[in-house]
Structures are given as structure tokens and as C-alpha cells.
Write a structure and sequence with these properties.
about 425 residues; alpha+beta; 6-stranded mixed beta sheet; 5-stranded mixed beta sheet; globular
């Protein structure tokens, strides 16, 4: 990665805002102007990721909320997706429901209904599956309260394979306008952290019993092959744990690092990926020369925040990834950093690249959601859906004080097959 491309936050935010002021309008225009060109083999395909915060505090609550078309937050999520009009989309923090009932309700009651000038959007294909969040480990992972196996509490979440109050909380779903080769999907939900050579498991923190069973992925890692005409692009999706909510051992920061490393090794050739095994027992990584797009809320900013050893640079510096000329940007991120101040002042990263509106006291707004194409794919237009306060669509993001949709922003990247 060329670090010289990144601007200091100490630069004049007003000038940065001017440089990307037209960003939101450009995003919306491209989504409509290119509609007739995208979605066909050989043309531009829009990949996107959105941590939509469609998680709920209790099991079954998401199904209840999506059973009618009247949930305000879900309407905002749907409209955001409709405005950007992606072809292939990862949604993070969408509670997993066995059988896919929640996904179908969201498709039918929200995405297929246009509101406030936004056109309906249809995804004929989707993939979802179980995740580690809220799945009881049967071991006292945090060394407190003994083994907690009754769902619904923080203590239970701490002892689950991934933090969650119930199984499936904070799940994922992939939506696609193109066919998904579901038989070829690879999942890495059960891969053990200890089986990663050179892992950064915190020394002395976990008991032997915990180390023996602790899975690496806090949710799951999915290789979802999408068929674009006669070609296949592997959509590599995940949602690593936030590198926070821990102590001096930095267990979550270290886990976040190695969750990101899993994909970096997966695309790094046989010498780096031979140790990996998926949930069917198949070993190794992605075949060299395969096209892929890595997407997800990586919970890691290349310069700021609490990441362990700048974890996401394992992607940004990876020789198999074809970075666009500039990362996705927004004018809204620049405006938010200027208005909120706090931890945003003095950060190293360019606020135009921010993708999440976190507390201005700590850690500040960050660039944590990424859509990264491989060599063999030509990156085109991109953006972060973050309108400024004078934009009519600002109602979909808000000022960060009240979260009207999500504290994350939808990030998109257009690609063409080389």
C-alpha cells in the first residue's frame, strides 16, 4: 500500500470536504445511469458491504420486526441498499435464523418495496448460514463465573465461541443478482485458532481447555462463488471481532488480527494456505489465479483505532489484491469528523475514507468496512454512502448521536472482469 496517499486529519477539513463534496450525488447518479450496463456478463458489477445493524437483543425479535413492512430501521436499511443498487452485497449483523426465514422477510417486505422515490431491488439469489456468535462453547473462556450456558446475558456471551446473547446473533447474509454456486461454498466456522501457525493467541490468558476448542472466526468466514456468465468470482466475506472490549491481554485485538489473516493466507498461495481446513474437512486455500472480492466489516482501520499490528494492512499490502486508485470516499465522513471533533482531531487517516460513525470521544470515526477486488478484476467507481447534512438523504445516516439506520455506512466498489 502507498501510505503517502493517506492525508493527515490535521489537514484543513474544509478543503477535504470541497474535494469530495459531490460524492453522494455522484454515487446516486452512477447507480441509476449505469443500471442498464451493470448486471450483464462483461459489464461492470457492483460489490458492496453493509453492516446494517439488523441484530436484535433477543432471539426471534428480528423475524418479528421483519414480518411487517413497518419497521423504521429496516426501511432505512432497505432504502440505503436501493439507493446504491449493488449487484452483490454482504450484510453484516443480520441475525441468523435457520431456514433463512428472516432473509426472505427482508427481501419480500422491504427490498422489494420502493419508498420515498427509491426503486425496489430484487436479489434472486442469497446465501446465509450458521455463525459462532452466541453458540455456547461449554468452557469458561474468560475465566469468570464458571461455564455459563444459559443464553441472554453478557456472561453467556463471553463464554460463547463468538460474543452473542443467543446463537446466530450478529450473523451474515449474502444477496446476489447473479447465481451463487451453493454447492461450492466453503465455510470456516469451526477452524480452530490454535491450528493457525504463528497465531497471536494471547500468551497465558486462555486455559488449556479453552485453547483446545476455541474457534478462530467470531462469526464465520465464507467463500461464496458467484457466477458472472462463464466466469466465477469468489466473494470472501467475514466480520472479525472488534479489537476492543477486552483487557491488557488484547484477546479481541489479537483475534481480529488473525481473523483478517485467515483470508490473507487463503489468497496467498499453497505455501501460506496449506494449513487451512474448511467445515467439510477440505484443506488449502483459493486456487492461484482465481478472481475474488474480499468484503466485510473488518473492524480494523489501517492507521487509527485499536487494531493489533495494523491488522487490515494484511489486505491492503497484499500482492494478490488490486487496490483502486483511491479508496471509497464520502463527503459526509469529512463533515462528520469536522463537526464531531473529539477523537477525530489528530487521527492519521483521511476522514473522507471513514465508513463508521463511532463515538467522537473514543475511538472516533474509522475506516473499517472494506471491499477489495483481486488481480484479474479492474476496479472502477466506488464510494461510501454518507450524505452530508444538506442532502435530502441525510435522514438515512443522521448525525451520529441517534443511530437511525446503523453506525456503519454502506461501502461499494464497481469492478470489471479483466
Amino acid at each position: 500500500m502507498n501510505h503517502s496517499r493517506t492525508l493527515s486529519r490535521r489537514a484543513t477539513l474544509a478543503s477535504l470536504a470541497g474535494a469530495v463534496l459531490a460524492g453522494t450525488a455522484t454515487v446516486r447518479a452512477s447507480a441509476s445511469e449505469q443500471h442498464g450496463q451493470r448486471g450483464r456478463y462483461g459489464r461492470t458489477v457492483r460489490f458492496a458491504t453493509f453492516n446494517a445493524s439488523l441484530n436484535r437483543a433477543t432471539e426471534g425479535a428480528l423475524v418479528t420486526d421483519l414480518s411487517t413492512p413497518d419497521n423504521a430501521q429496516a426501511r432505512n436499511v432497505a432504502e440505503t441498499i436501493q439507493r446504491v443498487n449493488p449487484d452483490i452485497l454482504l450484510i453484516n449483523e443480520f441475525d441468523y435464523v435457520e431456514g433463512g426465514g428472516a432473509v426472505r422477510l427482508f427481501l419480500d417486505n422491504y427490498l422489494s418495496r420502493g419508498r420515498r422515490g427509491a426503486r425496489p431491488i430484487h436479489f434472486p439469489h442469497h446465501f446465509t448460514g450458521p455463525v459462532n456468535t452466541g453458540v455456547p462453547s461449554g468452557v469458561d473462556l474468560d475465566g469468570k463465573n464458571g461455564v455459563v450456558t444459559t443464553p441472554g446475558s453478557d456472561a453467556y456471551g463471553q463464554d460463547a465461541f463468538g460474543y452473542g446473547f443467543f446463537p446466530g446473533q450478529y450473523g451474515m447474509v449474502v444477496l446476489s443478482k447473479f447465481p451463487i454456486d451453493t454447492r461450492a461454498v466453503r465455510t470456516f466456522q469451526h477452524f480452530l485458532w490454535k491450528d493457525m501457525p504463528g497465531n497471536v493467541i494471547p500468551p497465558g490468558y486462555y486455559s488449556d481447555a479453552a485453547r483446545a476448542i476455541l474457534r478462530l472466526s467470531s462469526k464465520s468466514h465464507w467463500d461464496v462463488p458467484v457466477r458472472l456468465g462463464h466466469e466465477t468470482v469468489h466473494f470472501l466475506v467475514s466480520h472479525p471481532t472488534p479489537p476492543s472490549f477486552d483487557g491488557p491481554e488484547d484477546r479481541n485485538g489479537r483475534r481480529n488480527h488473525d481473523e483478517i489473516r485467515l483470508w490473507a493466507d487463503y489468497i496467498g498461495g499453497h505455501s501460506r494456505s496449506a494449513y487451512l481446513y474448511d467445515d467439510k474437512g477440505v484443506r488449502g486455500g483459493l486456487r492461484p489465479g482465481s478472481r475474488f472480492v474480499i468484503a466485510g466489516d473488518q473492524n480494523a482501520d489501517p492507521y487509527d483505532g485499536d487494531s493489533y499490528d495494523h491488522a487490515v494492512r494484511q489486505f491492503l499490502d497484499h500482492p494478490a489484491i488490486n487496490l483502486p486508485a483511491k479508496p471509497p470516499t464520502s463527503a459526509g465522513g469529512v463533515e462528520a469528523a469536522k463537526l464531531q471533533g473529539g477523537a477525530n482531531i489528530g487521527q492519521l487517516g483521511n476522514p473522507a475514507y471513514d465508513t463508521a460513525d463511532f463515538s467522537d470521544t473514543t475511538p472516533g470515526n474509522l475506516r473499517v468496512d472494506h471491499v477489495l477486488p483481486s488481480k484479474g478484476l479492474l476496479p472502477g467507481r466506488n464510494g461510501v454512502f454518507w450524505p452530508t447534512s444538506d442532502d435530502p438523504l441525510y435522514r438515512l445516516v443522521g448525525d451520529g448521536t441517534t443511530v437511525v439506520t446503523s453506525d456503519h455506512r454502506l461501502v461499494w466498489q464497481d469492478v470489471r472482469l479483466a
